[in-house]
Design a protein that fits this description.
Elements: H1 18-38, E1 45-50, H2 56-64, E2 69-75, H3 79-88, H4 90-93, E3 98-101, E4 116-120, H5 130-134, E5 140-146, H6 160-167, E6 171-182, E7 187-197
Helix pairs in contact: 1-2
The protein binds S-adenosylmethionine.
S-adenosylmethionine binds at residues 20, 51, 53, 57, 75-78, 81, 104-106, 121-122, 125-126.
């Protein structure tokens, strides 16, 4: 068992911004109710988090979901972020349930087992949706995107309807939801869907 003591982590403060944290809390609450409605509690799913960044999304979900994942795979093409996320997820890592991979998921072919959940809360950052084409039919999918303009947002959805239209050819959408953010210096929305890969 590997235990980390007194290591310093460098995490961008944006990972703890109200918008980021509220989006992940919204995901967690929604996922718990959607799981109760749509998932078979007898079936264990593998969790794959694409674009896991520094791990705050998985941390918030895993620390409060009622769904148990035996295996948790986190993917981020930035090796520094990935390394940080494995330390943030140390509680699950030392149980040998977390595996990290610093690859571009647009070229990653996952195991073709349908008993998996794929989460991507950073669709606006992904240059292509090839990763979604590569995941197995009937696996569960939870996606978030936004209409917020930002230098690093390469693939925004302009509205909830635009978001739905982008993904409905690949995902049988069970749930679709929007969260609006109003700050003094900016306004934007996040969009979220839950469904099953076609
Ligand atoms: C800035 S973060 C995400 C912010 C977002 N709101 C969230 O927390 O989900 C976007 C992450 O996606 C990762 N990323 C973007 N394209 C990727 C790809 N093709 N494969 C793997 N990771 C990718 C980036 O390295 C980055 O860490």
């Amino acid at each position: 068992m590997k235990v980390y003591f007194c290591m310093q982590l460098t995490i961008p403060s944006d990972a703890f911004s109200d918008g980021q944290v509220r989006s992940k809390m919204w995901l967690t609450h929604s996922f718990n109710s959607w799981a109760a409605k749509h998932l078979n509690p007898e079936v264990r799913l593998t969790l794959n988090w694409y674009g896991s960044w520094v791990g705050i999304g998985p941390l918030l979900l895993l620390s409060s979901t009622t769904v148990h994942f035996n295996q948790i795979n986190v993917f981020d093409q930035d090796p520094t972020s990935l390394k940080t996320s494995l330390m943030v997820l140390n509680h699950w890592f030392i149980q040998n349930r977390v595996h990290g991979d610093s690859k571009d998921v647009n070229t990653h072919i996952p195991a073709q087992d349908p008993h998996q959940l794929f989460i991507n809360t950073a669709c606006e950052h992904f240059t292509s949706d090839n990763w979604l084409k590569l995941i197995p039919k009937d696996s569960y999918v939870l996606l978030q995107s936004t209409n917020m303009t930002h230098d690093e947002h390469l693939n925004c959805s302009q509205s909830l309807e635009d978001f739905r239209k982008r993904y409905h050819a690949l995902v049988d959408i069970f749930e679709l939801s929007q969260l609006d953010f109003h700050y003094t210096n900016k306004e934007f929305s996040r969009f979220m869907l839950f469904g099953q890969k076609k």
